[in-house]
């Protein structure tokens, strides 16, 4: 089931990049990024209200856990910048490359308080395939 949800997330992300890019065409990069995240906030608040959950955490988290929001905003901004200049498949493939390299580093060194995962050389082959696919997509 989690694999299916991950594939579904990929489908949604592809559509999201297109819609966010179109919105940036109307409002500009920064205003559209603000609108996109405001809509996300409203939906999140709606889910919290529907589930009758509290917004207060049981334990106050460290400030570093809130940085994910800034990363999400930067990701949206960068995708909107690339939209219209390179293909959606190239945007998503390059995003996947960045995510893969970063996740290998996080796993290998146990960054962000994650448990260290042994690095397997076969992962390098997968990374090579991603790079080869990106090279083919951008060369055509």
Task: Describe the SSE topology.
Layout: H1 2-27, H2 29-51, H3 67-82, H4 88-109, H5 121-139
Helix pairs in contact: 1-2, 1-3, 2-3, 4-5
Describe the structure.
- This protein is 76% helix and 0% strand.
- By secondary structure, the protein is mainly α.
- The chain starts with a helix and ends with a helix.
Which keywords apply here?
5 helices; 140 residues; 0% strand; mainly alpha
Name the poorly predicted regions: none
Task: Give the ordered list of helices and strands.
Answer: HHHHH
Determine the mean pLDDT. 91
Q: Please describe the biggest sheet, giving its number of strands, its sense, and whether it closes into a barrel.
A: none
Strand content: under 5%
Number of continuous helical runs: 5
- Termini, distance in Å? 35 Å
Rg estimate, integer Å:
18 Å
